[in-house]
Amino acid sequence: MPFSKHPTTVAMPRCFCDLSRTALKARQGCRASGARPHLFHPSTAQSASGGTSPQKQRYSLKLDVKDGKIYNEQNFFQRAAKAGTVEKWKKWHSLPLLGIPSCVGFGLHADSYRFLVFSDLGRTLQSVLNDGLHVLREKAAFQIVVRLLDCLEYIHENEYVHGDITAENIYLNPADLTQVTLAGYCFAFRYCPGGKHVAQREGSRTPHEGTIEFISLDSHKGAGPSRRSDLESLGYCLLQWLCGFLPWSDELDKVETVMEKKEKYRKDVKCLLHLCFRQKSIPGALLNYLQQVVALEYEEKPDYGALRQLFKKPLEKMKVSAYDSVDIKMVP
């Protein structure tokens, strides 16, 4: 079926019908509201192009129980990530690229399941790391971080935080490595409804929501994540991408231990970095980034430009731009 460029309520696309039967079976017995939606990337459909013949494009479909986390994600896209809003932001900030996914449709299937349809997202960064890379070179890692800071600034300025920064939610397009997309908004939180920041109240939400290895201390403690929470999570991701592990990576089944270690190293960032890098040189950009992020107050607005500049400067010395093709080898 053809899709328009604006997200609309649609029936389950025919190109996903066979897949949806398999997906629905996989989702049977997984009705807990805390479960993540499943994302599938198999299909080609016709796209309305304004010309005489429709163009074929690839799409991804996300599927979950009707009242699961996907409902939260749908709300995010309807409120904060419409295509027109994203384009206006890009023009206003002179950005050549902004990695906010394009949600082209959504709807209900069999009155029990909700789905979202996206333009094809590519491959997750985690899948690329699992191919054998395990770690990223500084150049690639810094390029990705600058692009993600662009995304986070956009999201934050539109009253939301992402809430689950992880390589599983970051996508690269094998056919065009200038494209870096931040997806996975099932834990998105409206931290500033109507321009009024929510109060910091530990225990007001389910504790430890998100990917345990990377979530912020605020999320561990059941406080609504704020802007600093996303930046803290991004710092943990960057550290793992460069070193291959975090001090709590082997204890993820002990959430209280993970939280205690994050609390400990938040007070001593240099110790955290020395532990992870061992005898290797510690990137000054990462040290400065983490020190600035852990110093942020709960409601404080980050200086996104200054944080980006920490990584843009070393990229300039490498004679590369954050908006060039990411320096990473991957297969489709």
TrEMBL record:
Gene3D superfamilies recorded: Transferase(Phosphotransferase) domain 1
Superkingdom, taxonomy of origin: Eukaryota
Domain Protein kinase: 1-311
GO molecular function: ATP binding; protein kinase activity
Entry-linked InterPro entries: CK1_Ser-Thr_kinase, Kinase-like_dom_sf, Prot_kinase_dom, Tyr_kinase_AS
Pfam families noted in UniProt: Pkinase
Polar residues compositional bias, start-end: 43-57
Keyword match Translocase: no
SMART domains with a match to the protein in the record: S_TKc (SM00220)
Keywords, ordered alphabetically: Kinase, Transferase
Presence of the UniProt keyword Kinase in the record: yes
Region described as Disordered: 34-57
Protein name stated in the entry: Vaccinia related kinase 3
Organism encoding this protein: Columba livia (Rock dove)
Primary gene name: VRK3
